[in-house]
Design brief:
The complex is a heterodimer. By secondary structure, chain A is mainly beta. Chain A contains no helices and eleven strands. Classes of the chains: A mainly beta, B mainly beta. The interface between A and B is medium-sized, with 26 and 21 residues.
Chain lengths: 117, 111
């Protein structure tokens, strides 16, 4: 089966511009997650979708970040306007249905490296 | 809240020698623990997971980890390092659907 794919792999934008990251989960995976790692910091949870619904967006840093998952398939994460501190690697992951206590492993994509100059 | 602490930010070993990556966790109940690896320009790959079954967990590429509740540890080991093991390794604890990552340990392997 195809893995989690993310696009683009790299993005360099200027402060104030808008960037949209895309994630295609593994087919049939209802759960989709966004994580990010800013320079020198730990990988942090951003949000979790179950199908098209946002289950938890407690990790979203501020209202400049907007995530969508229309139709419960692929997801986009838009940053508008981008700031310097948004630079980092944004990871997407997906897992099968199984509920909150499921042990279904998360499958990660290769990440999108975002650089804001 | 659950968390993990990776005790070493960098580990350097010679090819063919053992590898030990240390991880301590903090959890109010029996945790689900994982080790992930990230090779350069690649995604995060699951090495192994502990989910309250056997305390000694075997993973891919010859890695294994032992869950020790009395020490709140989940150290990752491999008896003989290979050049391809050079990567960054993350100890992870899961609370419901949310993963909490350690800071990562970068492994370099000397020929």
């Amino acid at each position: 089966e195809a893995g989690v794919t993310q696009f683009p792999s790299h993005s360099v934008i200027e402060k104030g511009q808008t960037v949209t990251l895309r994630c295609d989960p593994i087919s049939g995976h209802d759960n989709l997650y966004w994580y990010r790692r800013v320079m020198g910091k730990e990988i942090k949870f951003l949000l979790h979708f179950v199908k098209e619904s946002k289950q938890d967006e407690s990790g979203m840093p501020n209202n400049r970040f907007l995530a969508e998952r229309t139709g419960g398939t692929y997801s986009t994460l838009k940053v508008q306007p981008a700031e310097l501190e948004d630079s980092g690697v944004y990871f997407c992951a997906s897992s099968r249905t199984g509920g909150a206590q499921s042990n279904s492993p998360l499958h990660f994509g290769n990440g999108t490296r975002l650089t804001v100059t | 809240a659950q968390s993990v602490t990776q005790l070493d930010s960098h580990v350097s070993v010679s090819e063919g020698t053992p590898v030990l990556l240390r991880c301590n966790y903090s959890s109010s109940y029996s945790p689900s623990l994982f080790w992930y690896v990230q090779h350069p320009n690649k995604g995060l790959q699951l090495l192994l997971k502990y989910t309250s079954a056997a305390t000694l967990v075997k993973g891919i590429n010859g890695f294994e980890a032992e869950f020790k509740k009395s020490e709140t540890s989940f150290h990752l080991t491999k008896p003989s390092a290979h050049m391809s093991d050079a990567a960054e390794y993350f100890c992870v604890v899961r609370s419901n659907y949310k993963l909490s990552f350690g800071a990562g340990t970068t492994v370099t392997v000397r020929a």
